[in-house]
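Exercise 4. Each item below gives a protein and its sequence. For each, produce the structure-token representation.

Item: Iron ABC transporter permease (Pontibacillus halophilus JSM 076056 = DSM 19796).
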Amino acid sequence: MSNRNKLLLLAFISLLAIALFLVWDVGTSWDYVLPKRTVKVIAIVLTGSCIAFATVIFQTITNNRILTPSLIGLDSLYMLIQTAIVFLFGGRQLALMEEESHFLLSVGLMVAFALLLFRFVFRIEGRTIYFLLLIGIIFGTFFESITSFMQLLIDPNEFTLIQDAMFASFNRVNEELLIISFVLVGLVGVYSIRLFKYLDVLSLGRDHAINLGVPYDSVVRQWLVVIAILVSVSTALVGPITFLGLLVANLAHELMKTYRHTLLILSAILISIVTLLGGQFLVEHVFTFTTTVSVLVNFVGGSYFLYLLLKGNQS
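Answer:
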């Protein structure tokens, strides 16, 4: 089967999954259920697209298929922000905070941290992207340690508020946040258009890209900023889903078997949408909300990650 037909098949499966998710077991309450499910579907499409797009680009830049943007430490910083609000101002402040303000605060702090990290690392002569990953892992561990310390000190009743933010959920997304997210992602998409032409060459590696005339350092820095904004928006919108990007990006590579990023990115986005819709369907109709979609996705993605490690070790 050609890659074009594979892409069309994925698009058909995605549309079928969306239709089934919207109409499954609706009963007679169409006017109540359908708008709520439509908001979830839009949030799933937006979040899945951001994570899939960011992960494919990140793996191209690092030239490594088992890395994800979470290594920069943004997921850990998100949990630190939620915990710090409850620790400093109390759970009541987090509950009373307007969702738009909370969303913009989380996105703003994560993007600001990423920009400062990039500026600090790349101003040092001779530092590579692997040095950036090392610094990101150190900061991520540091944030997790502070978060765990503060969580031990706060009231157990207030800790339940933080638990809600620890796992991704599409049930608490509102329409205003979706509009803001679409605007941010749309602006990033427009900015990214002029960088697309470098992706196929970047996958050859730093030396080959420079020899072929690509302004490597400048392009990589711009793509890292794009990745940081997309990951920050998706994380602040629904919560952290660590292994989703790893899962869908590698499945896209295995399915398409091409270096062309137009096909890889589109297929990764469609696989991500089907994965999240399937996970949310299981959460609502099989597990009756006793678990979250991030738990299911991280279980499957974590297992796949171990498979990749064992496969790489054997080869």
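Check: The two ends are 27 Å apart (CA to CA).
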